[in-house]
Amino acid sequence: MSEPGKTKFQIDLRRHLREQEVDDNLIHLICEIAEASKYIIHSIRTGDLGVAGTSNLYGEQQLALDVLADRILRKRLDHSRVVANMMSEEMDEIIPISPDCDGKYSVAFDPLDGSSLVDVNLAVGTIVSIFEGCDLLQPGNNQVAAMYILYGPRTTLVYSVGNGVHEFGMNNLMEYTLLQENIRIEPSGNLYSPGGQRNKYTPGTEAFVTHLEERGVKLRYSGGFVPDINQVLLKGKGIFFYPHLNDLPKGKLRLLFELNPMAYLIEQAGGAASNGHKRILDLQPEEIHQRAPVFIGCKEDVKLAEEFIAKME
Ligand code: AHG
Ligand code: MN
Ligand code: MN
Ligand code: MN
């Protein structure tokens, strides 16, 4: 994929997208989101760590950074001229930008995932799901692109437009240049990232975790969905799950802007993502803020979780 004269690893995001013959409007959209991430980095480093004094539809207390990151992305998407509709964790409703859908895209995003971890200086991220046209209530299988930006010790960007999943790093000029292409996940792994509280796990999940521990699988959980998934993807092994709990039958994570984009990326790397019974990307959303349980990562480990749940619940 590299261009003459440039070593593969000086390729920037726009060039990498062009080399995959991606639609110009989609290239523009992905690059605008990448640009917005620079302002989010700045807000994380300098912003107010306090509460915004408001709460979102989930009843979560919005942090000033949640609202600021949401505003940065909302403005960028609004001015991009290629967005039809958008929605985010911090918006109650879908925000219409353009009535005509031709050549436009609709975006669901989590502006700052793991925002409650910023004050303890753990890694956080931005997650984005992109559909062609106006409809955001489609199964995740119809996404044309998904990406996340991880604000960790390094700032990295991972994306896919359906031709594999690729990682970029932000260099000292604040450009995203290619780090690795076509990342692959092994069939089974040696780490697990268990969300929720163990004493609220249902029998199937409990038996699955006991099996993993007997197999000597290591526990790695930061509480940030983006770094926890990024670890499974880049180590190429492991499983993350935020399951249905006794008091949270739908689990905690949101389908449109957390599970669909991550499921798309992990499947592009040869992994799997399930709600415990069904492929995440096959779920037909009924409403924009819908939650779902999730088991995501190595294909064989996801299948094993489904088998324990089928046998015991
Ligand atoms: P957000 O900060 O966007 O609201 O998401 C937080 C999510 C996700 O980052 C993580 O996987 C999960 O919350 C962790 O939940 P617990 O704190 O219950 O483990
Ligand atoms: Mn939140
Ligand atoms: Mn989130
Ligand atoms: Mn969030």
Automatic annotation (TrEMBL):
InterPro entries: FBPase_C_dom (IPR044015), FBPase_class-1 (IPR000146), FBPase_N (IPR033391), FBPtase (IPR028343), Fructose_bisphosphatase_AS (IPR020548), SBPase (IPR023079). It catalyses: beta-D-fructose 1,6-bisphosphate + H2O = beta-D-fructose 6-phosphate + phosphate. Residues 185-308 form the Fructose-1-6-bisphosphatase class 1 C-terminal domain. Residues 8-180 form the Fructose-1-6-bisphosphatase class I N-terminal domain. GO terms for cellular component: cytosol. GO terms for molecular function: fructose 1,6-bisphosphate 1-phosphatase activity; magnesium ion binding. Homotetramer. PANTHER family: FRUCTOSE-1,6-BISPHOSPHATASE-RELATED (PTHR11556), SEDOHEPTULOSE-1,7-BISPHOSPHATASE, CHLOROPLASTIC (PTHR11556:SF35). NCBIfam families: PRK09293.2-4 (NF006783). Substrate binds at D113, G114, S115, S116, Y221, K252. Its cofactor is Mg(2+). Binds 2 magnesium ions per subunit. Its main location: cytoplasm. The keyword Metal-binding applies. This is Fructose-1,6-bisphosphatase class 1. Keywords: Carbohydrate metabolism, Cytoplasm, Hydrolase, Magnesium, Metal-binding.
